[in-house]
Amino acid sequence: MTYKAQFHPGSSDPSKNRKKYMDPEYKLQKIRSVSDEDVVRVLGHRQPGEDYKSVHPPLEEMGEPECSVRELVEPTPGTKAGDRIRYVQFTDSVYFAPISPYQRSWMYSYRYRGMDSGTLSGRHVVEARERDLEAISKELIESETFDAARTGIRGRTVHGHALRLDENGIMFDAMQRYVFDKSTGEVKYVKDMVGQEIPAPISVGKPLPEEELKTRTTIYRADGVTIKDDPEVLEMVQNVHWERSFGGFEPFKEAKFKEGL
Amino acid sequence: MVYKDEKHNFMQAMKKKFEEAPDEKQTKYYVYGGYKQNKRKVEYFESGQQLAKERGIPGYNPSVGMPQGQRVLMPYQLSHTDIIANMDDLHFVNNAAMQQAWDDMRRTVLVGLDSPHSILEKRLGKEVTPETINHYLEVVNHAMPGAAVIQEHMVETDPRLVKDSYVKVYSGNDELIDEIDSRFVIDINKEFPENQAEALKKAIGKSMWQVVRIPTVVGRVCDGGTVSRWSAMQIGMSFIGAYNLCAGEAATGDFAYAAKHGSVIQMSDMMPARRARGPNEPGGLMYGIVSDCAQSMAKYPDDPARHSLEAIALAALIYDQIYLGSYMSGGVGFTQYATAAYTDNILEDFVYWGMEHVKDKYGDLANQKPSVKIINDIGTDVTMYCLEQYELYPAVMETHFGGSQRATCVSAAAGTSVAMATGNAQAGLSSWYLACNLHKEQMGRFGFYGYDLQDQIGAANTFSYRSDEGLPFELRGGNYPSYAMNVGHQSAYTGIVAAAHSARGDAWTLSPHIKVAFADKSLPFDFANITKEFGRGAMREFVPAGERDLIIP
């Protein structure tokens, strides 16, 4: 029998969405188009058309030492070219954003190579060679894991994930990198990730309705589905806790402890 | 305050913080006038401009930093008080009460009198009686602040600068204490309920101990390592003076040895070289000791939750704001994390709910054996309750706008609840880690890199008491290996330790000596009302010690 990865326990919508995003065989749904140039503008690391800055010569020119690991692992395009390392960072609202920081880390680990991710409560950063990073960013911004109102692209001054939404249902951003265009119903970026103004607004489309977000989200919530409503998830978490506890120091206590010390 | 008084303890604070109802999900932003909505920030701006002119170097200038006040710069209610404070006033630099809380702990050392009395009687053939002890206490209270006893041409400190320095005694021997001048006594019978007093006296026994408070200013200019040295020097001189000894005879070395090593209780252990701090610095402070500094159980013996919350408030200041926030990290950011544990009655609501839930389920506190079932049941119920409050009340979520703040409060409540159910701190710690995992899974987010790391590895050493693998929770502290760098844990750990013992009705957590030493009305900081004192500091109503006004123009 061939092992089939479950990716995540549970049968609720958030559980199903987690499985979907973590499964590298599943192709993320593309729900908006943002041009390559506009992705570069929002990232703010270089100007569109500007050469990539490099931190070493192309690998082909470097004469690498004999190394079995290097032979096994195919370098990413950015690594081959010697690109510098840059980042993209997202903030996901607690109010039914499509994805949240831990799922980002898990999803990225299944889907992307040559990246280093960092998980915090209010933001998630991923670093990679610049051209690889741009490709990752484009896929993420265009995909179903990004919502115009509940996801933010923020390099610094990131607080907002836990704040109430504004009168248009948009997540707070102290730097107002994006604005809600009432005439079109679209959210438009007017500043790059670190808050520098960009020449022309870049649309990331219309926010999804709340009800649709609830079906797409990976976040369990009391006003949605909680992990208590999805018993397999709760059981898994409790099991993880006890495996860590009894797999640690003084595991011989386990038998006694189960009966009560 | 009991959670059933109102639907939730935090409601009053939420209504004062925000215009909208606590369950309203939307608000307005960018319309509050920036920093000008906050009177303290306006003062800072005006002062910054004035100071730049006076000193010729630019300083405070919000226009070069991130504009403050794009959202409501909310005030904070000190938990279980009616005091509403400005957030800036809860940084220890801006809060004299907070400074004094740590000053009072750092400048304290306990020194036994049995050993020197034995030397006086057995080696030197001197008589030690209540009268001679009273005379000695008069001498040492002259000397301890920095006055001469033996030499005749001596520099001394101005008594007005060091008026907070003194020596008192305590003992489990009621008959002896009755004969000591009451001005020098911490009377256990008066400071504790009868059952607690009896337990404390039994634990302390017939021994007599000195509670030494060196001057606040000395602790600040030097460090915690100075405290026992300053104390020992003045104690040695006082023995020589009070008992007419030869300065330099071998017995004086014995007095010094007793006061520095043989018969001394420091507040905390010294730190290893890479963190290099002497004793009586916060890194070496055990959670059980901080819990014993808090005096809530003596004043409110029927309210174990209050004791736990007060211990958390004190620990948030000492470990998070001062130790990790400044000794280890620097900057100002840690205050924002730490205040979550003692403001707005949010953790209050969680801890009281957990305690009532335990009572509803098991009839009373501390009557369950620690087990997987208890930890799973109580830990999960309390965690889910707390998460629900954040999810159903967006005002609460916005108040704790950082995940680490929520992580601290949710896990603290889960931990204190299990500790109260079992009377076992280790079981409470296990519940903390279970709560961390549940929280992370439910929200898909937790704290920050290092915050989460500590909680992913901690379960493995929860139940170990063996050296290098773990410790009884009461004996862990600021320098326990994986606890040494992360804000927002140690406050709650102290609360969990406190909860286990307060639920059992114990008179102390780890040390009966420390418990008695801080039941002292002469201290500037009132350790029975910690959040209230922080609030008085924020309102600029607290009068600290160690001020220098006397010696400046």
Task: Describe what is shown at a glance.
The complex is a heterodimer of chains A (261) and B (553). Chain A has 261 residues and is α+β, with helices and mostly antiparallel strands.
Give the arrangement of secondary structure elements.
The complex is a heterodimer of chains A (261) and B (553).
Chain A: H1 13-22, H2 36-43, H3 59-62, H4 68-72, H5 77-81, E1 85-92, H6 101-111, E2 115-119, E3 124-129, H7 130-142, E4 151-153, E5 178-181, E6 186-191, E7 197-203, H8 210-216, H9 231-246, H10 253-259
Antiparallel strand pairs in A: 1-3, 1-4, 2-3, 5-6, 6-7
Helix pairs in contact in A: 2-7
Chain B: H1 11-17, H2 39-55, E1 76-77, E2 84-85, H3 96-106, E3 108-112, H4 114-123, H5 130-143, E4 166-171, H6 174-178, H7 188-191, H8 194-204, E5 208-213, H9 216-221, H10 224-242, H11 250-262, E6 264-265, H12 287-293, H13 296-299, H14 304-329, H15 334-338, H16 346-362, H17 372-392, H18 394-399, H19 403-422, H20 425-443, H21 449-457, H22 490-504, H23 512-517, H24 530-538
Antiparallel strand pairs in B: 1-2, 3-5, 3-6, 4-5
Describe the overall structure.
The complex is a heterodimer of chains A (261) and B (553). Chain A has helices spanning 13-22, 36-43, 59-62, 68-72, 77-81, 101-111, 130-142, 210-216, 231-246, 253-259, and strands at residues 85-92, 115-119, 124-129, 151-153, 178-181, 186-191, 197-203. Chain A is of the alpha+beta class and 261 residues long. In chain A, the strands form two sheets. In chain A, strands 2-3-1-4 form a four-stranded antiparallel β-sheet. In chain A, helix 2 crosses helix 7. Chain B is mainly alpha-helical. In chain B, the strands form two sheets. Chain B has a four-stranded antiparallel β-sheet. Chain B has a two-stranded antiparallel sheet with strand order 1-2. In chain B, helix 17 (372-392) packs across helix 20 (425-443). The longest helix of chain B is centred in the middle third of the chain and has 26 residues, at 304-329. Chain B is globular, with a radius of gyration of 25 Å. The interface between A and B is large, with 55 and 64 residues.
